[in-house]
Each structure stands twice: as C-alpha cells, then as structure tokens.
Amino acid sequence: MPELPEVETIRAGLEERITGRRVVEVELLWAGCVATPTADELVTELPGRRIERTGRRGKFLVLDLDGGAALTVHLRMTGRLRISAEGEERRKHLRAVITFDSGEGLWFEDQRKFGRLYFTRDASELATVLSKLGPEPLEAAFTREALAKLLAGRRAQLKPLLLNQSFIAGLGNIYVDEALFRARLHPQRRTDTLAGGETAALHEAIVHALRQGIANRGTTLSDYRDATGASGLNRERLSVFRRDGTPCLRCGAPIEKIRVAQRGTHICSACQSPPPTT
Predict the structure, then answer these.
(1) Alpha-carbon gap, residue 136 to 147, rounded angstroms
(2) Angstrom distance (rounded) from CA 103 to CA 82
(3) What percent of the chain has pLDDT over 70?
(4) Kind of pairing, strands 51-57 and 60-65?
(5) CB within 8 A of 262, min separation 6: which ones?
(6) Model pTM greater than 0.85?
(7) Average pLDDT over residues 78-93
C-alpha cells in the first residue's frame, strides 16, 4: 500500500502538471471507485472545476478545487494516479479518467479495486472524510514532546499502534519496520515500557524514515509508481523491510520475518531486543 512518502511523491509530481488546470470531462470505467457522493454526481459536478492546489493528508491525496470543493483520492493497496502520455493505450485496470483543458488526462488505475475517490463540496464535507486521521508526522507540531504526549497512558504494542492511522497519519508496514529498526525498538515492545530517550529515538526514526522515502521518490515493491509512471528508488535504501535472510547492515545478524498483529514484520533480533515474555 502506498504510504506517506509515496503519496507525497505523487502529489509533488502532479503539482506542476495540473495546478491551475480545469477539468473538462470525467469518465468512470468502474463506478464503484467513487466513495462519495455518487458516481453520477461526481461525473456531473467535477467538470468545470479548476485545480487550485495539490495537498496530502496522511495517505490521502487532496486536490483542492475552486469554490471550496475538493477531490480526494485514497490509493489503498494497488491504486495508481498518474498523468497519461499522449496516445497511450488504456490498460486493463483503468478505473477513472479525468481530462483537463490542457488535453492531458489523469488516470486512476487500481487492480484490486480498493482505492476510492471522494468529491466534497466544502471544507466541512472534506473534514468528515479525513476526520479519523491522527497528526501529520512531518509537520513542525509533531515534536518529541508531542509523541510522548500521544504515548502517555497507553499500554499497546508499538507496531500495531504506529499502523493505526488515528494515532499518527501516513505510516504503514514499510516505514514502521524501518523506523523501529532505526530506533532499536522491537515491534512487540509495549509503549508503557519506553524510557524518555527511547521515545526521542522513535520520533527521530519516524521522521528520518519518511524523509528518506520522499527523497528517494517512494518505495516500489510491486504496484507503486509515481505520477509519471516511474518506480521509486527507496527499495535499495531499506534496512530491514523485505530483507529477511540477509545480513543486518548494522551488526551482520540475519534479518528475520515475524508476524505482529497479523502483519509480516522485519526485524534484527540482535539490534531490536525482544520484550520480556512475562
């Protein structure tokens, strides 16, 4: 699933191409990709709107439109959002086409049909779509102290909590594993056992993992592509994710794959000491 760095890379790629463009046509090849309001309303109301700004909230791409409206996209597992090349042949998993006054098309492709489009008419409707999201981990307000306050009073395992989008927005399996490795914290460690220095290390590791992902234009493992259809470069920079059986880059011990909260999880058990069993 595209996580914060992948969605941010797509947003940045779209910014120069579609900001200021006006939608002239919407074609839905699968009406089920529209979450709100309805497919007919999206096709009717989106044309004529101008893209004022490209934004992101967690894993959601938000295209701000004139008149206070917005088109929000959640790619989920296999969604792709990209500018189509002139004369490009349509592919099997194309679900929606948005055509601009420039003649370019924005294609929404999704093999597994989990991704969704949200058309909202005003700020309150958009706020409802995004209402369950926690703080943005790359904003200035997300400090070490802010993370400590979020963790206070909780007795949860680290990985499931960090994957919870209402706790922190934008983290997924890849960057949680990478951050926990960098912070030397086992994914099954309980939050109420963290010392102050460990919380600070976790904060630094989360920010580092996400910024590295953005700098390398995202992580392509299978489906993810940027707004031009290019793969991300961050896979070669991963320390543990999908590296099971290879030596730890820090200590040389083999990277292991375990299950945490029903998710495949990659660790170095030498660097990330398992929590006590009692």
Answers:
(1) 11
(2) 14
(3) 99
(4) antiparallel
(5) none
(6) yes
(7) 90
Element (DSSP H or E) covering residue 95: strand 94-100
Q: What span, in angstroms and rounded, lies between the C-alpha atoms of 194 and 147? A: 12
Give the mean pLDDT of 208-212.
Answer: 98
For strands 79-83 and 105-110, give the pairing: antiparallel
116 assigned to active site: no
Say how many residues make up the chain: 278
- Answer yes or no: 8 catalytic: no
H or E element at residue 94: strand 94-100
From the candidates 22, 144, 263, 275, which is the catalytic residue?
Answer: 263
Q: Is 149 a catalytic residue?
A: no
Residue 73's pLDDT is 98
Is residue 88 flagged as an active site residue?
Answer: no
Of 3, 6, 109, 178, the active-site residue reads 3
Q: Which of 21, 59, 82, 116 is catalytic?
A: 59
Which residue among the candidates 2, 5, 137, 187 is catalytic per the annotation? 2
Write the pLDDT tens digit of every residue in 56-72: 999 999 999 999 999 99
